[in-house]
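Subject: design request, 190 residues
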């Protein structure tokens, strides 16, 4: 009987585990390449025009326009199917034409999603019929600048994608860079 109760207790404990979303965890892991990554995918079957999509690893609702939503930059994408989750709870689901554009509100309630590390599953269908599937990819939502990532200078925001150079599409932020964003500035100088 003791073993059965212990087994039930352990099962409940493991079932209730979720990803740590404390401000310190977000600060430490938000732009860590092992935890969160930006995504760039190209169609293998281009028919002349470039077909690609890019998704950032971080966004900050309520800040500058370019980085205030989790938005795709894309060309030649016909449709996206996407679910965004925190842990196992879906906060936003999309099935429609390009681009993806999530403003950070929880779909079922129109409440603002909190700062945290979210994950998504995605199926993108290019206009030539090719599909790309991405499972359990992580990204960050920063709503409060008290949770700014320690390594914000390595974060990849939406505004950093260079649509004219898909061979090296990301222009990284550094303190002297003219591409620095207001999010970066707010994180470094709260």
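Subject: RE: design request

Done. Sequence follows.
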């Amino acid at each position: 009987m003791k073993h059965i109760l212990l087994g039930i207790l352990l099962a409940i404990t493991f079932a209730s585990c979720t990803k740590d979303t404390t401000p310190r965890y977000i600060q430490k892991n938000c732009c860590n390449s092992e935890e969160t990554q930006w995504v760039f995918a190209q169609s293998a079957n281009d028919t002349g025009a470039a077909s690609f999509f890019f998704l950032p690893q971080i966004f900050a609702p309520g800040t500058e326009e370019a980085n205030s939503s989790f938005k795709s930059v894309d060309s030649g994408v016909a449709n996206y199917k996407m679910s965004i989750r925190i842990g196992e709870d879906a906060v936003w689901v999309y099935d429609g034409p390009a681009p993806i554009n999530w403003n950070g509100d929880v779909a079922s309630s129109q409440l603002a999603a909190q700062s945290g590390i979210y994950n998504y599953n995605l199926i993108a269908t290019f206009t030539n019929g090719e599909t790309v599937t991405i499972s359990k990819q992580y990204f960050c939502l920063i709503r409060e600048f008290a949770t700014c990532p320690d390594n914000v200078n390595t974060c990849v925001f939406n505004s950093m994608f260079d649509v004219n150079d898909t061979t090296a599409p990301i222009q990284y932020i550094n303190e002297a860079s003219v591409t620095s964003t207001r999010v970066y500035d707010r994180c470094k100088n709260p």
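The helical segments are 2-15, 23-29, 182-188.
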